[in-house]
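Example 3.2
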Amino acid sequence: MAQEEALEPTWVDYQIRSDLSRHLNGIRDTAQLSSRLQPMTWSHHSKVGHTKYLKTNARLYGDGRLDLHVYAEIGSFSKKLRGRVQVFLKDKDGIVVASTPTFRCTTRESILFGLFGDSYGRDMFSHQFSPDVVRKTAHVEIRQWKA
């Protein structure tokens, strides 16, 4: 009977194992990175006056970008809506870590004077924070009012 010879691993075997290990570590790192970069989202809807409404959707990304989508609507026949929005980032204890400047929405015209402008519409705003601020953020407070 022939005796089986034990095969010694070659350089190619080590190279394949090394590449596979590096690839698996890259997948693991990518998964951890993407879980940290999943955006946090908040929404706030409020009545800011008689037949005047603002709804803001906020999305905060891991790289520090904050995107705001504001929907404004007015049902008045004679008034205008000049919406304002400001966002406050708070830590787990409710302390403000950072805030945005006050964003001015497009003026929405009354239904009667709708010929000069829309009585409803959307505005988009963006603001950049540092990633350190995002790591500290546990909650976002959205304040909306009319000017």
